[in-house]
Amino acid sequence: MTQPATTGRGSTRRAVxxxxxxxxxxxxLAACGKDDDGGGSGGGDAGGTQDTGSAQPSQSAGxxxxxGGDGMELAKTSQIPEGGGxxxxxxxxxxxxxxxxxxxxxxxxxxxxxxSVGEVxxxxxxxxxxxxxxxxxxxxxxxxxxxxxxxxxxxxxxGNSIRMA
Length: 165
Prior knowledge:
Blueprint: H1 13-32, E1 73-76, E2 84-88, E3 93-99, E4 102-107, E5 119-121, E6 124-126, E7 133-135, E8 141-143, E9 155-158, E10 161-164
Antiparallel strand pairs: 1-10, 2-3, 3-4, 5-6, 6-7, 7-8, 9-10
């Protein structure tokens, strides 16, 4: 009978390969399993959208009207269309203007599978990966496989400047 080949420390090659495969599979599943909720619905592209880069969600919901915060300027208020918004991928935030002078901010990371949302149109923030749609007023799910709303993000509006908080 043949003895299994060993790595020199008493472990068989099969055990080492199995452990390495299991570790790789676990890492892959962890990366893919953010919040995969299943389902599907369509989005669309209608003007008023600008995609400006890629970024990280901020902590809490903001109405954009608070003072304080000397963060980096994201945009001028005139750049955010009423009833629409802009995606700032570099900052992982999407800023919307549901009604005149009212600015909201949300994470631009879809709660379904962690993709970056692609655009804002028709009153929704739309994810291109699996077609989840989120309301521009509160980030709630309007369609698609996502089941959790987009987390709010903090911004400040001073004069005509919209800034990260």
